[in-house]
Design brief:
- By secondary structure, the protein is of the alpha/beta class.
- β5 and β6 form a beta hairpin.
- About 40% of the residues lie in helices and about 10% in strands.
- It has one domain: Uracil-DNA glycosylase-like domain (Uracil-DNA Glycosylase, subunit E, 3-Layer(aba) Sandwich).
- It contains eight helices and six strands, in the order ααββααβαβαββαα.
- The chain has a six-stranded mixed beta sheet with strand order 1-3-2-4-6-5, sandwiched between helices.
Length: about 230
Amino acid sequence: MSRSGTRAGALAAITAEVVDCRRCPRLVAWREEVAANPRSSYRGEVYWGRPIPGFGDPSARVVVVGLAPAAHGGNRTGRIFTGDRSGDWLFRSMHRAGLANQPHSVSVDDGLTLRGAWVTAAVRCAPPANKPTIEERDTCAPYLVRELAVLQPAVIVVLGSFAYEAVWRTLRDLAIDLPAPRPKFGHAVEVETSGPTIVCSFHPSQQNTFTGRLTEAMLDAVFLRARALAAG
């Protein structure tokens, strides 16, 4: 079996475990409550209502790590960043950088494929108020550890400080040498490690995009830089 095939098999095994996870009672209750009571604009849709696995190219050199699925985004569609406005921004930017075949993602069967990239999250279930706890982050951490161990990316793009903290802990668990003290999170901050380079970005949440804290040009610059670093 090819290296890509071996990776795909290992990632599929992680996916199978993720989607059946019930380790965090608060998150299980919330994701299922949301799924049972759809937003009026999505009434009639059957929500996924389960944990969300990572997805993308098993040969990815760039891994994107977000916070957690949105209640009416990934928790509805079954794919991270799919069907919400954060995803609109993310996939437009990844498309412009050549990391996605199309600039939109509305459902799992919309034809989106990633090129040299993998998208995942620090926490796999939609949290109340989009705020997972530290305990929930740490309970979910082994999935990210295993994903990164399989993928061995050249670059990790972290979307927000929560993802930065999760990735830092993950790399430490993987025995990657990290700089000390840890650089402060900030947009476009780059951190070299003995493994992947971390590239930081503000999260493309409405809180950041509506206020102008994050612009499309700023996000594009992050993904163009990540692609260049991955090309080595």
